[in-house]
Amino acid sequence: MAAGPAPLGGHPRAQKPHLSKMERVVVSMQDPDQGVKMQSQRLLITVIPHAVTGNDVVEWLIQKYCIAEDEALHLGTLLVQHGYLYPLRDPRRLLLRPDETPYRFQVRLNWEQTPYFWMSTLWPAAELDYAIYLAKKNIRKQGALVDHEKVGYHHPSPATPAESSQRNPSPTSGAHSPGSKLIQMHKHTHPIEGVSEGRWGVHPPELGVGKSFPLETFNHPQAHYDQLHRKINHTWDLVVMQAREQLRAAKQRRKGDRLVIACQEQTYWLVNRPPVSLLLEGGSWTAEKSLQGQCVSLRCSLRTCLLTLGKDVSFEILAKFLTKTVDFYKRRIECCRKALGRTRVKSSVCLEAYLKFSSQRGPHDPLLSGCLPSNPWVTDDDTYWAMNAPSVAVPTKLRVEQWAFSFRELLEDPVGRAHFMDFLQTEFSAENLSFWEACEELRHGGQAQVPALVDAVYQQFLAPGAARWVNIDSRTMERTLEGLGRPHRHVLDDAQLHIYMLMKKDSYPRFLKSDLYKDLLAEAVVPLETKRRVFPFMWKPRHSSPSLALLPTSTSGEPEAAAGSPGGGDGET
Amino acid sequence: MAKEECKALLDALNKATACYHHLVLTIGGSADSQNLREELQKTRQKAQELAVAIRARLTPPLRDRGLGAEERAEFERLWVAFSGCLELLEADMRRALALGTEFPLHAPRRPLVRTGVEGGASGVAARALSARSLRHEGERDFDVEDLHQLEREILKVGEMIQDMEMKVNVPRWTVQARQTAGAELLSSASAGVSSVGGVSVQQRMGPCDLSKALAATIFSAVLLAAVALAVCVAKLS
């Protein structure tokens, strides 16, 4: 339905900086004392005030901003193109009088628009509004959505026979009936029109390359009307009703006001026309915000290009714009497809895993649960570090417990790995771990040693009659053997992974249940918390290994162990 | 009949929305004034009342599953038109809020843009409210308070639209519109525009209409005088 001005994606509508600057210029033009000179436009009976000549505008700009005439002209043209001013005589040409000769400024041209139609309040011009506007225009011009001077064209859209029979063939050459979709050829026929009754309308790709055709064919209100009718057919009742009512409401005003408002609306829709490419693609006009910027810039660049080149435009330029958008859409589709295929984990699952991890690791974390015997930063005693060194004879209990969390923990701890190796030797499957270690060395070793190492590994572990042959499944073995021809760092990755999974699923659980591990647990050390020597005057003895998590309440809860000597490494359990 | 009532209400809402749209066009321009803001307020309040009434009438038939296919199609058509109208109204209200904040009436520094529109729009508002004329009675700071109220009303309308979407499930694309392309060119009498409570009173207060009436009377008077003179001359001679 109508997009309306609701901000898409929740972002507030930010004014583009160039538009706010232009607004300021226009507002300063309004100043009754120092603004631009206003005159009155005189139609047959009605007199409409607040008209401004182009000459006045340029002079004012030159005087106020001390700029050259060219620049003032350019600035004025920008104001017109963005809709802040609009021409009275030739509303379709959004120029502050073309830049051929500077003398053309005598013609009385421009009025100033209401803020409703200012570009800075950049609502996406919705399809519904545009449809209502076209319907109103249709009613006002009695079916002629074409200007009199423009060339007719043969529109290949489906015509309902009922409608066409209702219409009488229009008497004057200027009026056209949309129902029959056949628009009479006018006096100034275009050269191509004369050649054939060729069917060409809104799809220039059907034309041959290199032909030129007038801009109005596919930027045509009639084409828009039909397209909109197809697209928002379901709301056509509303469109008709609203169009009629709006016209009736407008009749309540003076004639002069009516004219002004009609001109303003016309200019608004001229400035905000739907971009050519989108109409041709049949794509959605109310595109997302990210596309909108592209479209606006496309539209602006297209329009300025066409305006400077004149009415007839060669097909190549348009083709360039067309291909750009086709590629753009294709890339977007690819992007979206890839995004769909990504694996996603539900947050409930993630959070459960996170909770489990936190509860498991909580007691092991030195910050959360305090580190025994004492926090070296607090007591200046580095027993803690000595006891938890990478290779120590007797590991602490916490450390041994950590090996049970996951296989990776066990392998990463050198002490753990050594004990695991001992265990595997009792099971006669130590070559697995050796192979894994050798592969690790290959992966992280020097580049120069890679070929030699690969060779050594092959000889020792993978060759058919090797001394320490590892059990790898046939497919992985084939792939590895193929890769051995061109050895690189990661050639043994598959095999290493296979062996790793084998150990993890098979040997590791057995290790955890084995007597070896249980003995280790029993022998592990739990150091005592050292008591801090404090002044006898202190009320609360400070803790030597404060736990940050318990800090606010950590007063008397902690059991006070007997004061062991602070230097004793292997305390009694 | 429920359908006729709904249609009449919908036509009135349509009229109010169109008038509101027309009034919003002139905010910030040379015709902006306190009167305009008051008219805006009255028009949109009327439109909201109508919207609430229509919604109350249309929701029960659409939620009733036992309704016949044709009747249901009819109601769906009305529903689509109604929700479109409401969205247009909301869009216009937002524009009015943005423009109203940008162009405060009583701030000395920012002049209104001189657009060439003069003359009041009381006729438009009166048409929306189906009244003969409008009384203007606002205080000085009317527009500032009005903006606050406008914000709240926008939120209300937005909620109403949301609510409607949730409660009634009408797939828009399946609705077949009665009017075809170019149907607006047919005479407007067939549209069946009927306002609430009978004939709408057309406002003829525009100065040009007055001058037309004046010219007509003068002309007829002169004609009568000429005829009388001719008769006298004929009698005398």
Automatic annotation (TrEMBL), chain A:
Domain DEP: 32-107
Source organism, top-level taxon: Eukaryota
Region Disordered, annotated ranges: 151-181, 546-573
UniProt keyword list: Signal transduction inhibitor
Pfam families listed in its UniProt record: DEP, G-gamma, RGS, RGS_DHEX
Cross-referenced Gene3D superfamilies: 1.10.1240.60, Regulator of G-protein Signalling 4, domain 2, Transducin (heterotrimeric G protein), gamma chain, Winged helix-like DNA-binding domain superfamily/Winged helix DNA-binding domain
GO cellular component: a single term: cytoplasm
Comp. bias regions, Polar residues: 162-175
Low complexity compositional bias, start-end: 546-564
UniProt domain RGS: residue ranges: 406-521
GO MF term (any one): GTPase activator activity
GO biological process: G protein-coupled receptor signaling pathway; intracellular signal transduction; negative regulation of signal transduction; regulation of G protein-coupled receptor signaling pathway
InterPro entries: DEP_dom, G-protein_gamma-like_dom, GGL_sf, RGS, RGS6/7/9/11, RGS6/7/9/11_DHEX_sf, RGS_DHEX, RGS_sf
Name under which the protein is recorded: Regulator of G-protein signaling 11
Organism, as annotated: Camelus dromedarius (Dromedary)
TrEMBL record, chain B:
Species this protein is from: Camelus dromedarius
Keyword DNA-binding listed: no
Organism classification: Eukaryota, Metazoa, Chordata, Craniata, Vertebrata
Any coiled-coil regions, as ranges: 30-57
InterPro entries associated with the record: RGS7BP/RGS9BP (IPR026512)
Keywords of this entry: Coiled coil, Membrane, Signal transduction inhibitor, Transmembrane, Transmembrane helix
One GO biological process term: negative regulation of signal transduction
Protein name (database record): Regulator of G-protein signaling 9-binding protein
TM annotation in the entry: 213-234
Family: Belongs to the RGS7BP/RGS9BP family.
